[in-house]
Specification:
The complex is a heterotrimer of chains A (about 400), B (about 575) and C (about 260). Chain A is mainly α and about 400 residues long. In chain A, about 75% of the residues lie in helices and about 0% in strands. With about 575 residues, chain B is α+β, with helices and mostly antiparallel strands. Chain B folds into four domains: about 45 residues; about 210 residues, Orthogonal Bundle (MetI-like fold); about 55 residues, no CATH class; about 190 residues, no CATH class. In chain B, helix 2 crosses helix 7, helix 3 packs across helix 7 and helix 8 runs antiparallel to helix 9. The two termini of chain C are about 25 Å apart. Classes of the chains: A mainly alpha (about 400), B alpha+beta (about 575), C alpha/beta (about 260).
Chain lengths: ~400, ~575, ~260
């Protein structure tokens, strides 16, 4: 009838157009593009060449067990591995029952975690006979959890209880009884280390900081001045100084406050991490509480709910839902910060890496193996933090907070 | 008829107000109980563990060295001074880190917003990598992975003009020092400042009068600089040294220093006379004979493994130089190749006989049956002269020439400021002169800068994106140029969004500088930790440490609150 | 009408007036999507042209092309004898001569009303501040909100904000005013105050191109009404012709939906 739609005179699609628009839109851009491409290609080639021909990966492989569990007795490795299996199983369950957008995010996290574990399994199949079957079992446990959830979706109701219980089970498994020998002999926290410790410290830290943080946040919002100002003082003092000073403090002063009893270094560091994280958690939760419209609380009061019930049933659930991304962010920070515990003599991944770099075998290689160690350690941290930050961004979008 | 509230009839445990009071009382009681238990425990602990609780120890002798310090510090100083050195070191790394992180962060944000795909990808990868790796690991990267193994050591330092970089010292740059004539310039600086302020006010008024927008800094800044420069020249003309100022060389201790020769006997009387401020001196030797042992570079690149480095001389510092092997008969087939004549090169054996050095022909010390001493070279420098700045106190060594002959010293002209340039004292591996940014400092600074910049970049990018597109369109539709649109519309709005999180990033950077201990940089935390170890005064050190960081945090919070109060957008 | 015969509806201004805007064979694509198809439109000085049509028909894109907020790929746009090319100087000149009012006001929230209105005169026209403020007050009085001059946009209602936006555009004393759905984002009760300002402006002889859904305004003050659909001009005519006796099927169906 009238004018029909015509194709554009200059094609604004296709590879050539993309190149022009993104790389060579003018001489200045072209120069930058070419120069940086040359530098990138050169760097990548020299890095690859180094990684393939020059790097001494064998020392990294040889010490992989140290990185993972430090000095945990080899014959008892099935115990931390059972924890891994248990966690993968629960993660599988959670991924299996998850619905909607959040379910998808959980599934993705599960998917990546399984991918990571699968890679470790493949490595251990060839290199670590002591744990090769254990890793396979852990992977199977993950799949089993996922399948079980598909058959029995009602498990969703028990998930939070199961997760809560799993912490105690893991602690029990890793610590054992007080016996001197036997399969469940006591393994002192001094022997824990590596990635195992990194995970333990950060997960326990965030888990125990959570209730404490909520209490502090509610306290800060309280109308009772004594409680309010106590909470404010606590939060501000803790946030005012860096974590390293609190680790230092816990390690020096905790024995003093306990009248001369010296708890394990692990416990001292863990207490510092929990108390530290709680202050930040409180601020996150407070942000969530403030984001809940006043009308919600008023509606709850109008329905005749007591202040306690309206907080517990109406306000807090909404607020906590809103701060999930922030909590994931806090966890990422904690996960990175556990690398500081080497200052109080614990052997987390970073400390173990430092130790390996100073081994005589490593020192014999000209220039040492710091580069290899650095790459492996960074990749580990990066993988977990990056996946979590992606998940956090997706959660933010899913919960409709991205546009705030 | 009004109903009287029947307050008295409500039992106290159901009255909202009494509940509140009782709850608080119970809470306070619990806190007091807890504190009492802790205090009792501490008192018990003090006895059993024998810890120190008073602050009196602070005036005791510290007894430990601090590797770098902004103010003079030695082991004989007190704990207080050591802690002050620590705080100053924290500020030294934090302030520069804040500036650099801001610049890098803004650049990366702009790169991420640019229309160049490569730049966008680079900046995205940078951000996603750096913020997902612990800062400690990055400090480890800069210190242990990047700097120490890859930089040359000692005198083989990389050089760019008057800048040197090596892994034993760090970055060495020229540095200006005050001299005793500085007070001649000081009034001029004050005048310059006053005139600049006057110009600023005048320009502001003028702009208001002609009713044009503009920045008065374009007038006041040049005024300040011009007056300051003229003032400097005048002060320079009037500069003179105090009577009897004498320069002297203490060859044994490797020092060139100046003193006021009060009894005019020409020599420094340690008990009666004082070492004077830094002055520039020309150091001259007619002929200098040095014996040099080539150093191995720690670097792994095979072609320079047997590199040697003499005291590095600049072109204008010598007339002629001769090199010869000390053990000439044993080393007749060894040759020298210079990367930088006359002082930096490699010992090699001309295996293919082409008369020049090829990669792989070097003969590292201890290989091919040659021993270290076979390498020893004699270096005869004729007409050696060098401008040095005399020492303020015994730490730096400006001379370091172990030779029998006394150098000729000429006092150079007086000036308000003395520029000290880095140079290699002969026969020493440490660089002297200028100032040093040590490797620990650089490693911490780089890690803090790169880490914080990745967060700043995201803040800046988010803020710029959050200024609605309609704002730019409206500005363009009014005929504002792109520059004006950015300066007057986008940037002021973005800045309001950027500033609060930016300040909290600055605070994070400052707090994160406490990780300097992982690069062996001795800032506040590291020094406090040593003070605790030395004195055993855990409680007081704890109070000082936390108190110190609280002061820093509160300063940033006040800045933030002040900004928020001043710049809140007015809304309905 | 046969499908083969492509009819180019020309929306030419009446002969005799002096042309201020001339658009010839204007074509624009968003990627592969043909948004504006062969538009021919001219406007005389003092004319009020109202552009109507369903959403997504390219009305806004058309007027945003006139001051180069959108770039066209084919065709020619001339404003006040200046051709809109890639030359920055021409773009700047044209933007100075055309004022634009947006659907979402786009006032600068960090500047007071007075600063909003005087920003461009001072920075672009290099006016003195007092002069600009005097002019600003004149136009603020014209849009009937002189008392709000020292407030910030956030403190004003939608209708007040849009009137400030009109004053902001007028203070540049443009030769043409472009209105991009100026009342669509407003609460119904304040639409009237904005329309009143626009009607007065039209009566004073301002050249205006107005994209709107306000048929009452089109009927009352429009000299010509242009109906657009699917990126093309479907029908042009006087308001009487248009609302009383539309010719095209698409026009009829559109009008039946909204009237």
């Amino acid at each position: 009838m009238l004018q029909p739609a015509l194709p554009p005179p200059i094609r604004e699609t296709g590879f050539a157009f993309w190149l022009k628009r993104n790389l060579f839109s003018n001489w200045w851009n072209s120069l930058i593009s070419l120069a940086s491409l040359v530098i990138i290609v050169y760097t990548l080639i020299s890095l690859l060449r180094w990684m393939v021909f020059e790097a001494h990966w064998e020392i990294v492989w040889q010490n992989l067990r140290l990185f993972a569990t430090y000095r945990y007795p080899t014959e008892l490795l099935w115990r931390p591995m059972s924890c891994v299996a248990l966690i993968l199983f629960l993660f599988g369950l959670s991924a299996g029952v998850g619905k909607g957008g959040i379910g998808q995010i959980v599934f993705k996290a599960f998917y990546w975690l399984m991918g990571f574990c699968l890679a470790i399994t493949l490595i251990s199949l060839f290199l670590f006979p002591s744990v090769r079957w254990l890793w396979l079992i852990a992977i199977i446990a993950g799949f089993a959890g996922y399948s079980l959830a598909k058959f029995w979706p009602n498990v969703a109701m028990y998930l939070s209880i199961l997760w809560g219980l799993s912490w105690f089970v893991c602690l029990f498994l890793m610590l054992g009884f007080s016996g001197e020998s036997g399969p469940m002999q006591y393994v002192s926290p001094g022997m824990w280390g590596g990635i195992q410790l990194t995970f333990f410290l950060s997960v326990t830290g965030i888990a125990l900081a959570f209730p404490l943080g909520i209490a502090l946040a509610l306290g800060r919002q309280s109308k009772l001045p004594a409680i309010k100002y106590f909470c404010i003082t606590y939060i501000e003092i803790i946030r005012g100084a860096p974590l390293i000073t609190w680790l230092f403090t816990a390690s020096l002063l905790l024995p003093l406050f306990l009248g001369g009893i010296r708890p394990e270094a692990l416990i001292r560091a863990q207490v510092a991490i929990i108390l530290f994280a709680a202050a930040y958690m409180a601020e996150n939760v407070r942000g969530g509480l403030q984001a809940i419209p006043k009308g919600q609380r008023e509606a709850a009061h109008a329905l005749g709910l007591t202040p306690w019930d309206s907080m517990r049933l109406i306000v807090l659930p909404q607020a906590l839902r809103a701060v999930i991304p922030a909590i994931v962010g806090l966890f990422i920070g904690l996960f990175k910060d556990t690398s500081l515990v080497t200052i109080v003599g614990l052997h987390d991944l970073f400390a173990v890496v430092l130790g390996v770099a100073n081994q005589p075998e490593a020192k014999q290689i000209p220039g040492g193996i710091v580069r290899e160690l650095f790459i492996v350690m960074s990749l580990f941290y990066w993988f977990f933090c990056y996946r979590m930050s992606v998940a956090s961004k997706q959660l933010e979008k899913e919960l409709g907070l991205g546009t705030r | 008829m009004a109903v009287k509230p029947s307050q008295e009839l409500v039992p106290w445990y159901r009255n909202v107000k009494t509940i509140a009071i009782v709850a608080q009382l119970v809470f306070v009681a619990l806190i007091i109980l807890l504190v009492t238990i802790l205090v009792l425990n501490v008192m018990k602990g003090v006895k059993t563990l024998g810890v120190n609780t008073g602050f009196g120890f602070l005036n005791n002798r510290a007894g430990f060295p601090i590797s770098e310090s902004v103010i003079p510090y030695s082991e004989d100083n007190t704990y207080v001074r050591a802690l002050i050195v620590g705080i100053l070191n924290t500020l030294k790394v934090a302030l520069l880190g804040i500036v650099l992180a801001t610049l890098l962060g803004i650049s990366v944000a702009l790169m991420r917003l640019s229309n160049n795909w490569v730049l966008r990808q680079i900046s995205t990868i940078y951000i996603e990598t750096v913020r997902n790796i612990p800062l400690v690991v990055q400090i480890f990267f800069f210190a242990t992975v990047l700097f120490i193994p890859n930089l040359p050591s000692g005198v083989a330092a990389l050089r760019l003009g008057n800048l040197y970089l090596n892994n034993s010292s760090g970055l060495i740059t020229p540095w200006p020092y005050f001299s005793n004539n500085f007070w001649l310039w000081l009034p001029w600086l004050a005048i310059a400042l006053a005139l600049a302020i006057a110009a600023h006010i005048f320009r502001n008024r003028h702009l208001k009068k002609i009713e044009r927008p503009g920045n008065p800094l374009w007038l006041s800044l040049p005024v300040f600089l011009l007056v300051a420069v003229i003032g400097y020249l005048i002060a320079l003309a009037g500069s003179k040294y105090p009577e009897h100022l004498t320069v002297s060389a203490d060859v044994d201790r490797g020092r060139v220093f100046s003193f006021i020769d009060e009894n005019a006997n020409g020599v420094f009387d340690q008990n009666a006379e004082k070492i004077a401020a830094k002055v520039p001196v020309l150091l001259e030797f007619d002929e200098l004979t040095l014996e040099v042992n080539p150093q191995r570079r720690t670097e792994q690149k095979a072609n320079i493994r047997s590199a040697f480095a003499f005291p590095r001389l600049k072109k204008n510092e010598y007339g002629e130089v001769e090199h010869q092997f000390v053990n000439a008969d044993k080393t007749s087939d060894l040759r020298l190749h210079f990367f930088e004549f006359p002082s930096y090169g490699v010992v090699y054996k001309d295996q293919n006989g082409n008369g020049r050095f090829d990669a792989g022909e070097n003969v590292p010390e201890g290989e091919d049956g040659y021993e270290g001493k076979d390498y020893s070279l004699q270096m005869i420098v004729k007409g050696f002269k060098r401008r040095v700045v005399t020492d303020n106190y015994g730490e730096t060594r400006s001379l370091s020439v172990e030779t029998a002959t006394e150098p000729k010293l000429t006092l150079l002209g007086a000036s308000p400021m003395v520029m000290s340039y880095p140079y290699f004292p002969t026969e020493r591996t440490q660089i002297a002169g200028g100032t040093i940014f040590t490797i620990p400092y650089l490693a911490l600074l780089f890690a803090l800068t790169f880490y914080t910049a990745s967060f700043i970049a995201e803040i800046v990018r988010g803020a710029i994106l959050s200024v609605a597109k309609g704002q730019t369109e409206a500005a363009k539709a009014l005929g504002l140029s792109s520059g004006q649109t950015f300066n007057l519309v986008v940037f002021p709005q973005a800045l309001r969004i950027i500033t609060p999180p930016l300040i909290s990033q600055y605070l994070n950077l400052t707090k994160n500088s406490s990780l300097g201990i992982f690069a062996a940089y001795q800032e506040f935390y590291a020094v406090s930790s040593i003070v605790n170890n030395q004195s055993g005064a855990a409680m007081p050190v704890f109070v000082i440490l936390i108190g110190g960081y609280m002061v820093i945090s509160l300063t940033f919070s006040f800045a933030l609150n002040w900004y928020n109060a001043k710049n809140q957008l007015v809304e309905r | 009408m046969s499908d083969a015969a492509i009819k180019n509806v020309r929306a030419d201004a009446p002969v005799g007036g002096s042309r201020i805007i001339e658009i010839e064979e204007l074509n624009k694509w968003y990627g592969e999507f043909h948004v504006l198809r062969n538009i021919n439109l001219s406007v005389n000085k003092g004319e009020v042209v109202v552009v109507i049509g369903p959403s997504g028909s390219g009305k806004s894109t058309l007027i945003r092309c006139i001051n180069r907020l959108e770039e066209h790929q084919k065709g020619k746009i001339t404003v006040d004898n200046i051709e809109l090319t890639d030359d920055v100087r021409n773009i700047d000149k044209i933007r100075r001569e055309t004022g634009m009012v947006f659907q979402s006001f786009n006032l600068f929230p960090h500047l007071s009303v007075m600063e909003n209105v005087t920003l461009a005169p001072i920075r672009v026209r290099k006016m003195k501040k007092s002069e600009a403020e005097q002019k600003a007050m004149y136009y603020l009085e014209k849009v009937k909100i002189p008392e709000q001059a020292q407030k910030y946009p956030g403190q004003l209602s939608g209708g007040q904000q849009q009137r400030v936006a009109i004053a902001r555009a007028l203070t540049m004393e443009p030769k043409v005013m472009l209105f991009d759905e100026p009342t669509s984002a407003l609460d119904p009760e304040v639409v009237g105050e904005v329309l009143e300002v626009m009607v007065n402006l039209a009566k004073e002889g301002m050249t205006m191109i107005v994209v709107t859904h306000e048929m009452g305004f089109a009927r009352e003050v429009g000299d010509r009404v242009v109906f657009m659909d699917a990126g093309q001009v479907v029908e042009v005519g006087t308001p009487e012709h248009f609302f009383v006796n539309p010719q095209e099927e698409r026009t009829k169906s559109f009008l039946s939906k909204i009237l």
